[in-house]
Automatic annotation (TrEMBL):
Record domain DC1: where: 76-124
Keyword hit for DNA-binding: no
The name this protein goes by in its record: DC1 domain-containing protein
Pfam families associated with the record: C1_2 (PF03107)
InterPro entries registered for this protein in UniProt: C1-like_sf, DC1, Vacuole_Formation_Reg
Annotated keywords: Repeat
Record carries keyword Repeat: yes
Length: 425
């Protein structure tokens, strides 16, 4: 089978082929299987076929994680169905697939007909999807999650560079400016500040274990609410963001003159198309292309995250990260007030939804924690019971044999060490 499917960040084309080994991990980047939550749709799209690069032993085992057709023709619907990131028809909180008529996760991409408001699970169209992937498919016919129909941008000079390579290429002055905002464990610059400095910078709360009251604090008055927002803003303004090794190793591509992670290429293209080059001003014009690229990368991280995250799933930590990324881009002179304005609305909605968390999410979290502790207690009690049973068995055996051992011991104590030598033949 001839490899004919392009996958961003991988140097070879992939084959869509039958899965031979069941014990195969999914190597997809920034995909549904790498997220914190597990969705049923992911299991439904674990199919008998996989995307595979044989030379590299690179596999994408979930259909949902791989390149999917932009459009699908479904024989029971008159219009083509378009692969769409989010479809939320109303505020009911319950959304259904029009093929199987079962509930669907609104945070998972679907095939959608806007004219008819027709929505279909990915797994409900597996036959149609695999039929396209087995055929003479073109790169322009496939997209991955939030990517659009345009072809994948080529890596600079044909090399597969990473975000770490971009950081390494910074001048000493630019590196210092970058490290004012970010920290990471790395082997190509000096080590990050020790844990004591981190604890001091991030605040005492993060240096130790939170109490239940701190962890589940909820504002009971306008003053409490203002204090909570102030604490959030203060923490966001005075901390450095930690870059994980997985982000440092992500492949980057070139869009226009800038370099960003491959999965952000569509976000950067859309940003440049809608708002122009937001780095063009007095400060931004003095930046090197590497610093501009990093600023665009983290700006697009925010735009990408906001477009893919439901408001109910936003956490305080995620909000802080978004503000930290924008602070870096703003410090580089980027004109991004339009992003700040949207994020302020998101922050307001986040704190407004705390009431719902107090009523439902937090009690459920504490209940799950209680169940987990109960299971641990039951396990310890079971281990203790087995220990008692084992001890009783040993003691019973010892009591039965104690008399014979005692008699033998008494006899041995009356013998001398040279007994066998002193005996006459």
């Amino acid at each position: 089978m001839v490899p004919n499917i392009e996958y961003p960040g991988h140097e070879h084309r992939l084959c869509f082929m039958e899965k031979i080994d069941e014990d195969v991990e999914c190597d997809a980047d920034d995909s549904y299987c790498k997220r914190d939550y597990r969705c049923d749709e992911l299991d439904h799209t674990t199919y008998s076929f996989i995307f595979r690069c044989v030379p590299c032993d690179f596999n994408i085992v979930h259909l949902l994680c791989g390149p999917l057709p932009c459009t699908i023709k479904y024989k029971y619907h008159m219009h083509p169905l378009i692969l769409t990131q989010f479809v939320v028809e109303d505020r009911s909180g319950e959304y259904y697939c029009d093929v199987c008529e079962k509930i669907r996760d609104e945070g998972i991409c679907v095939y959608y007909c806007e004219a008819c408001k027709f929505v279909a699970h990915i797994h409900c169209l597996i036959d149609e999807i695999t039929s396209v992937l087995k055929g003479d498919v073109k790169d322009r016919d496939l997209i991955i999650l939030s990517a659009n129909e345009q072809a994948v941008e080529q890596d600079m000079e044909g090399k597969k560079k990473t975000l770490k390579d971009v950081i390494k290429s910074l001048s000493e002055e630019d590196r210092e400016r970058f490290e004012e905002h970010f920290e990471w464990h790395h082997d190509f610059t000096h080590e990050v500040a020790d844990s004591n400095n981190t604890k001091h910078r991030d605040g005492a709360t993060h240096g130790g274990r939170k109490t239940t009251q701190e962890e589940y604090f909820f504002p009971r008055s306008d003053l409490d609410f203002q204090r909570l927002v102030h604490r959030f803003d203060k923490y966001s303004n005075f901390r450095r963001l930690k870059l994980e090794s997985t982000e440092l190793e992500v492949k980057v591509v070139k869009v226009k003159n800038y370099t960003v992670a491959w999965y952000l290429r569509a976000d950067l293209r859309n940003l440049l198309k809608k708002h122009g080059d937001v780095s063009d001003d007095d400060i931004g014009s003095e930046l090197t292309m590497e610093m501009k690229s990093l600023a665009f990368h983290f700006l697009c991280r925010v735009i990408n995250g906001m477009s893919r995250t439901m408001k109910k799933d936003i956490t305080e930590e995620l909000l802080r990260d978004w503000y930290g990324y924008l602070k870096f881009a703003s410090g580089m002179g980027f004109r991004i007030m339009f992003v700040y304005e949207q994020l302020e609305k998101v922050k307001h909605d986040f704190f407004f939804l705390l009431e719902n968390k107090l009523e439902y999410d937090i009690p459920n979290k504490l209940y799950r924690k209680k169940l987990e502790l109960q299971q641990q207690i039951e396990k310890v009690e079971a281990d203790l019971q087995r220990c008692k049973e084992s001890s009783n068995s040993i003691l019973q055996y010892w009591r039965l044999t104690k008399k014979s051992y005692s008699d033998e011991a008494s006899k041995l104590m009356r013998d001398t060490a040279d007994e066998s030598l002193s005996r006459r033949a």
